[in-house]
Design brief:
Blueprint lengths: L1 H13 L4 H42 L4 H50 L11 H28 L6 H23 L5 H10 L1 H15 L4 H23 L9
Helix pairs in contact: 1-8, 2-3, 2-8, 3-4, 3-5, 3-8, 4-5, 5-6, 5-7, 5-8, 7-8
Length: about 250
């Protein structure tokens, strides 16, 4: 199974030389970079506002001036760490928003090169994919925030902390990317049954995606790599499961 995953990933990397793929790649790079900046600025503004409120409260207390300075410095340092942690946690969920706009172009490029015999995919409205992406982003952010105390508790307990982070996000990303790709060709009940039947493969693909999204610079092209990977995974399990190209239509 692992060999099949890396074979699929190598196909995606090899396709970076495809002109059609490069066009989508440039758009994804620009969108990912812009999204990362937005996430970073949003987290920074939220923590800066919290820091200003806390600083005013500390200054209003009967505390020695030196201690006020020390506490403000500590909060500033924690704010920087908080921005990095927030970006780390939010970016995987936010990238699915990029996917909702680029899904069809990426998937079609992969299919043209590796699966030329497939019939045309279902014309999925952008708003349908965007609604699904927004719902996924909300659930992912909420679950990561709920798991944040556990992340912090396990911060100094490697590799358990990594298993928790990549396990949770791998499950969520695998599920969402697989269904977004599968719904181009299958009805929703059929797509979900296929995902559940091959949940191990989908989870492994999701963990690979989660890992790519946490690598500096690589995370900027991760939405494209993740989509291409999941197209290959979907075609593998669809054929293995004996599901026709347009089941349920």
């Amino acid at each position: 199974m692992l060999r099949a995953m890396f074979a699929a990933l190598s196909k995606v990397i090899a396709q970076f030389s495809d002109p059609a793929f490069r066009s989508v790649l440039l758009r994804a790079l620009a969108a990912s970079a812009a999204l990362f900046v937005v996430v970073w600025i949003g987290a920074w503004l939220a923590l800066s506002w919290t820091g200003a409120v806390l600083s005013d409260w500390i200054a209003a207390q009967d505390v020695d001036g030196y201690m006020v300075t020390v506490l403000q410095w500590l909060f500033g340092a924690l704010s920087v760490a908080g921005v990095l942690v927030a970006s780390f946690l939010l970016f995987p969920a936010a990238t699915v928003l990029i996917l909702s706009f680029l899904l069809e172009d990426i998937a079609a490029a992969v299919e043209r090169r590796y699966y030329p015999g497939l019939p045309a995919a279902r014309d999925q409205p952008v708003m349908e994919a965007l609604r699904a992406a927004l719902a996924f982003a909300g659930v992912t952010i909420l679950l990561n925030l709920l798991a944040l105390p556990l992340y912090l508790l396990l911060l100094f307990v490697p590799p358990i902390n990594l298993f928790v982070f990549y396990g949770l996000n791998g499950y969520l990303l695998g599920r969402e990317y697989f269904e977004l790709v599968a719904l181009r060709r299958l009805e929703e009940p059929v797509a979900r049954r296929l995902r559940r039947r091959y949940r191990g493969r989908v989870l492994m693909a999701g963990v690979i995606v989660a890992f790519l999204l946490t690598l500096p610079l690589i995370n900027l092209v991760a939405p494209i790599m993740a989509t291409g990977l999941m197209v290959h995974v979907f075609e593998q399990v669809r054929r293995r499961g004996g599901v026709p190209e347009a089941a349920g239509t």
